[in-house]
Amino acid sequence: MLFGILVNEGPYQHQASDSAYLFAQAAIEEGHTIFRVFFYHDGVNNGTRLATPPQDDRHIPNRWSELAEKHNIDLVLCVAAAQRRGMVDPDEMKRNKKDADNIASKFRISGLGQLIEAGVQTDRLITFGD
Amino acid sequence: MLHTVNKSPFEKNSLETCLRLIEDNSTLLLIEDAVYGALKNTNIEEKILNAQTNIKLYVLGPDLKARGLDKNSLITNIEIIDYKGFVKLVAENEKIQNWL
Amino acid sequence: MEEELEGGVVKKFLYVNRRAPHGTIYAHEALEVVLIGAAFDQDVSLAFIDDGVFQLKKEQDTAEIYTKNFSKIYSALEMYDVEKLYVEKESLESRGLTEDDLSVDVKIINSKEMKKLITDSEVIFNF
After folding, report:
1. Which residue of B has its CA nearest to A129?
2. pLDDT class of A3 with cuts at 50, 70, 90
């Protein structure tokens, strides 16, 4: 079955991203496919490559990157939410004349249409948020 | 239809609204802080017991365990499932409503 | 602008709005999804439940808190062919509001009808 996942909260602040990750992992183990994980609201902060959590804690952004790498999952940060909150990929850096980008591996920034598309194309869309 | 709730009923009204707007024969899964809603001897226990006549209730085990709770803390007839069970519920139910 | 998706699939989308408008950004960013989603030619309904009914209160003025007054967008939704706005009667009444307090034309429905609206929808967004 094709699943879409929406994550509406940032890492560490709220359990939403942890729950979404564990759900995605279990879905893959059960033989399902994750079509896309869409990050909205503060959820876009899951895509930072500048996070340095304590060594004995989970690394939420890296964990998403690794899952995406291994299972070819599309990780999308909403562009409007990302711009507001300072999440920048190389393209956005050029376009908005910033001096750096901060996006983690396997994440990309795109429009809200990607969320609607996930709703249309998948068998199930599940939301994790506050 | 599968409904999920992730809020403690003692702080937010998500569970209460879910119970008001859930169709009979639906499935309700409590995750994150909503697992507190499954506790026995609370002031919402009666609402849960009433709901159980029409809907099937589940709680997410890892979230329960993380909060120092287990089967003995819960109202009877609430099934404890793991993340694989969560995935199964999502696959079995054609539609999902996540009350946040 | 109409976005074309594979196979021309049309699904019943429901946006469930349960939050008050200015204390958090959820209502504002939910509206942004509705506006983008309108271009996709899907069957769209909006439900206002619990504190979500406060989103539709007329005469909102954010000038003195310097945030965007997105409340004006609700009355423009019609231009985007988003015409099905439902307000739960119980939520409205328990907050001391009546239809006259709202900024847009909505259909006020009771809990039983709201239950059916939710059950009949295929993709439900909660922000």
Report:
1. B100
2. very high
